[in-house]
Every structure is written in C-alpha cells, then in structure tokens.
Amino acid sequence: MFSAIDSFSGFSVDDLHGAREFYGSTLGLAVVAEGDMGIRLTLPSGAEVFVYEKPNHQPASFTILNFVVDDIEASVDELNAAGVVTKIYDDAEVPTDAKGIARPKNPEWGPDIAWFRDPAGNVLSVIQA
Q1: Cα 116 from Cα 125, distance rounded (Å)
Q2: Domains and CATH numbers, the chain
Q3: Mean pLDDT by 10 residues, the chain (129 residues)
Q4: Is-contact 112 127, C-beta < 8 A?
Q5: From residue 75, how far is each of 44, 67, 82, 125 by CA, in Å?
Q6: N or C end: fewer C-beta atoms under 10 angstroms in the chain?
Q7: 3-state secondary structure of 24
Q8: Within a 10 A sphere around the Cβ of 118, how many other Cβ atoms?
Q9: Longest alpha-carbon distance in the chain
C-alpha cells in the first residue's frame, strides 16, 4: 500500500516576487522563500502550500484557496481597501451583490462567498464560517 510521510498542495504563478508580496503583505500569510524553487505559504490552519513560478503559467479556472472568515462583510471591505477586487463574476450563473458576495438563498447551496484573484489570475475566495 502507498504510504506517504507528508503531503502538501501547490500552484503556479507568473511572477514569484509579486506572489510573495500579495500573499505575505496583502493577505498576511507567513511566506518563506524556498530558494529559486518558489515560496511556501503557511495557511491559518498550519497547512502549507508551495507556490512556484512557471514561465507559461495559465491561471487556474477554479478556486485554488478558500479562506474561511467569521465576518465576510468585514473581510471583503478589508480586501477591497487593500486594492483586491472581489467582484470578479457578474452574470446570472453566479449572482453577486455590489461587493462581489454571493449569498445563496438556500442554505443547502453553501455559505456566503466572495471570489478574488491573485496577481497571477488564480481564483481565491473568502467564505463565511
């Protein structure tokens, strides 16, 4: 049987310096440089994610990181104040309010959520706890 001793996730960006600034300064995550290979993010849960630069990077077309928050309104306001755009969807399939927060009418459809992009175009979100 397969027996791993550890695991971690990773994703690519097109500018490692820009990613380090965004994830460290804008989002406030612990960021450690891994030489020329990339950076390691430590998430609030303690989990780690490896971010590496890829010359032909294509942004993920799905949400790669979800940040669970106690107050989505305050979190979106803080992100917007830091220059992060949270209104990235504007269509009938993903209806959002003026701040970019989707508020499902049926609790079975999930919690309130707002999506945004990192500087490389990867999709992230904040989700109401």
Answers
A1: 6
A2: 9-128 (3.10.180.10)
A3: 88 96 97 93 95 96 95 97 92 86 84 96 96
A4: yes
A5: 15, 10, 11, 11
A6: N
A7: helix
A8: 23
A9: 51
